[in-house]
Amino acid sequence: MRGGINPYLYGEGNPLSRNDPLGLLSFFVHGQVTLQAFEGTGFSERFAWEVARANIQFDFIGGGATQEIDMAYSHGMRPPNESPAQAKAKWESFVNYQIGLCNAQGLGWAIHGLQDAAAAGHQDFQEYGGILRWRMIPHMFGDVFPSSTARVEALATTRKAIEQFREKCGCR
Ligand SMILES: [Zn+2]
């Protein structure tokens, strides 16, 4: 860079390259969008919170076992040895299976996968790349402008999942 000093070396670094390694921002957004999607659906507040909690906890199950590379599909991504189509097929059956369990945890996990796939950083079942080798998922859901189209899409797919659940399992 001209002038010799990269301004991003100051302070917190380039904000566009940061990806919330602890997932704090992203789990907040996961919960928020889930509760918002339940508004006006007739489901009880208790059930909505159970689903939101299951969604948030998904990334932390087994000390992060759900973030292993072979479960990339459940976050709307893929390992290097899978095509986007293969990962998408796994993701779809994961979501459908979890919804079909007819319980709060299953719906929460399904919604987690749907919301992750809506994140700009996960679009089109991107490869995890090297990040998974460090067992850190680039959970960009909350990092990439939560109020943008990603959030709108996440809200829409979450509502759709809730409706699918209602059709299959009834209201809770
Ligand atoms: Zn995730």
Q: Could you walk me through the main structural features you see in this protein, from its secondary elements to its overall organization?
A:
The chain is mostly helical and 172 residues long. The chain has one domain (40-169). The protein is built from five helices and no strands. It has helices spanning 24-38, 45-57, 84-100, 104-118, 149-169. Helix 1 packs across helix 5 (149-169). It is globular, with a radius of gyration of 17 Å. The model is unreliable at 1-18, 130-136 and 140-145 (pLDDT under 50). Zinc ion is lined by residues 59, 75, 112, 116, 137, 139.
Give short descriptive properties of this protein.
172 residues, mainly alpha, 5 helices, 47% helix, binds zinc ion
Task: Report a brief summary of the structure.
This protein is an all-alpha fold and 172 residues long.
Instruction: Write the element-wise H/E pattern from the N-terminal end onward.
Output: HHHHH
Average residue-wise pLDDT: 79
Class inferred from helices and paired strands: mainly alpha
Number of strands: 0
Count of individual domains: 1
Uncertain ranges: 1-18, 130-136, 140-145
Please report which band the strand proportion falls in: under 5%, 5-15%, 15-25%, 25-35%, 35-45% or over 45%: under 5%
Determine Rg (CA atoms, Å).
17 Å
Main beta sheet strand tally, sense and closure: none
Number of helices: 5
Ligands bound to this protein structure: zinc ion
What percentage of residues falls in helices of 4 or more residues? Answer: 40-55%
Separation, N- and C-terminal Cα atoms: 58 Å
